[in-house]
Amino acid sequence: MLAAILSLGGIGLAAAVALGFAAKKFAVEVDPRELAVAEVLSGANCGACGYPGCAAYAKAVATGEAAPNLCTPGGASTVDKIAHIMGVAAVTASPQIAVVLCQGDNPKAKAKYRYLGVADCNAAQKIADGPKECPGGCLGLGTCARVCPFGAIEITPEGLAVISREKCTGCKKCVPACPRSVIRMAPLDATVHVLCNSRDKGAVVRKYCQVGCIACHICAKTVPEAYVVEENLARVVYEHYDQAAPAVAKCPTKCIRDFVEGYPEGSTFAPPVVPVKAEAAA
Ligand code: SF4
Ligand code: SF4
Known about the structure:
The protein is an alpha+beta fold. The protein contains nine helices and eight strands. The protein has helices at 2-25, 32-40, 54-62, 75-86, 121-125, 143-147, 174-177, 202-208, 218-222; strands spanning 96-100, 153-155, 161-163, 183-187, 192-194, 227-230, 233-236, 256-258. A two-stranded antiparallel ribbon has the order 1-4. The longest helix has 24 residues, at 2-25. One iron/sulfur cluster (SF4) is lined by residues 98, 148, 150, 152-153, 163, 168-174.
């Protein structure tokens, strides 16, 4: 009996020593900076940084593979903390927001056919390049809204994706999710955008959309610094977004929109608060 106990104890002791040795020999050294960076990230694993999750991004930062300013949802304070851990200067990327470059909801843009399949833009796009006549217009089936981790996208009852300027963190998850490339990133401070994504000629656009860009060049003639027209489509030159507003009223199809005026009809997102100048004291 004693011999059996001693022999079992011996086996246990030998196994413990072997395990301890193996743990030491095969231990993976983790850079303490990787742990520290992971600690300051939110753990939301939203993918805004371009990595599969916060842990992967922390590792990439620690190895020098990734810049410290890619966690856009974390904002400037997260960039500051990561830069401090890595001993580098904090350079915050200018904040960006996602914009749906389309206003052609169901009443305003013609349908090619009646789509009755699953409510998914990628599925709809596979059938004859989508149910809308416009090849670049929003299909309104909400694939983008379902990938947004921040609930920043809603689909209006008229079938148009709308992004909340207040809720969007600029994580970019919605951009590759859209099969029509209708969502683009733009500077957060820019409120004026050309909300069209069709590169068809003006005469063709007029046949299928009431609010599409017809490439008339009026915007570029009104403010040459703030607009370019390429491939039959006007766009705001965002380096000069602060000059873009005067063209809003001149656009004949109203495809240039200033979001200070509020969100499209049907959206539940609250209109942005427009600051009112205080009356001068009498
Ligand atoms: S923006 Fe793109 S993904 Fe979103 S509803 Fe429109 S077509 Fe679908
Ligand atoms: S709308 Fe949502 S998914 Fe798109 S960039 Fe903004 S937060 Fe990210």
